Amino acid sequence: MGGKCCTDRKPRPQGWREKPLPNKMGASLRQAWAEGVSGQALFVVYLDNEDKSIGIEFETDSLEVKAVTPGGLLDKYCEQENEFVCQGDKIYSVNDFTDKTDVIRQLKEESQLEIMFSKLIVDAKIIKKPGKKLGAATDTETFTILKIADESLIADWNKQNPKERICIGDRVIAVNGIVDNEKAKQEIGSKEELLLRVMRGPRRAEQDPMGATGKLPPPKDPDGKGGKPPPPEKPTMKL
């Protein structure tokens, strides 16, 4: 159990200080990197956090990312490395620690941070309607979404599910459990009910209602009950 975990991830930066691994985490992290967490893709960022200011807000219970500060340390790293951390992604580990108490302690106390995130994956159930198209133009090879029509089934999904909206740049990774692109296209054309599994891609401000703040605007009477107060927000932490 004492070996190096996640051996196939991208190399640590030159001069990066190796840290002792928690005794019971090596195997689970290695498996997570190979298979993903509940089907989610993992990616790693490396930060030299000498000033103890990362530029991130996350829920302390779920470790779900709520916002990334524009121009902050994390945002600058992602821009340089062509990576993206978005609202809805989750912190999976920090310096190979996965327990949330350890994760928060590492983020607060350590100057060198190896943060593993899991990307947001949305399962969108779409039921076809007469006269309405699915409304997504995709790359023929990667199934990356290039355009979303305003009056479409996907646009309807986005209106009804603002926190799980499908955006330009996201990638369809399965349709009704089918991952082969050609077979998935046939499934879209032949079935009246579709379960789209979509992995989020880079969220650009001009495409994304979260904008520069990294947060969704409050919904306008989302339940149609004339101003019923929304549920209380979960505790978050800014670092």
What does the model show?
The structure is a single chain. The chain has a three-stranded antiparallel beta sheet with strand order 1-5-4. The protein has a three-stranded antiparallel beta sheet with strand order 3-2-11, with no helix packed on it. The protein has a three-stranded antiparallel beta sheet with strand order 6-10-9, covered by helices on one side. The protein folds into two domains: 26-118, Pdz3 Domain, CATH 2.30.42; 121-203, Pdz3 Domain, CATH 2.30.42.10. The chain has five helices and eleven strands. The longest helix has 10 residues, at 26-35. The chain is of the alpha+beta class and 239 residues long. It is elongated.
Key structural traits:
2 domains, 23% strand, Pdz3 Domain, elongated, 3-stranded antiparallel sheet, single chain, alpha+beta, 20% helix, 239 residues
CATH topology of the largest domain: Pdz3 Domain
Helix/sheet category: alpha+beta
Order of helices and strands: HEEEHEHEEEEHEHEE
Task: Report the total helices.
Answer: 5
Tally of DSSP β-strands: 11
Provide a compact summary of the structure.
The chain has 239 residues and is an alpha+beta fold. It is built from 5 helices and 11 strands. The strands form 4 sheets. A 3-stranded antiparallel sheet has the order 1-5-4.
Indicate the topology.
Blueprint: H1 26-35, E1 42-48, E2 56-59, E3 65-68, H2 73-81, E4 90-94, H3 100-109, E5 112-118, E6 121-127, E7 136-138, E8 145-148, H4 153-160, E9 171-175, H5 181-190, E10 193-199, E11 236-238
Antiparallel strand pairs: 1-5, 2-3, 2-11, 4-5, 6-10, 7-8, 9-10
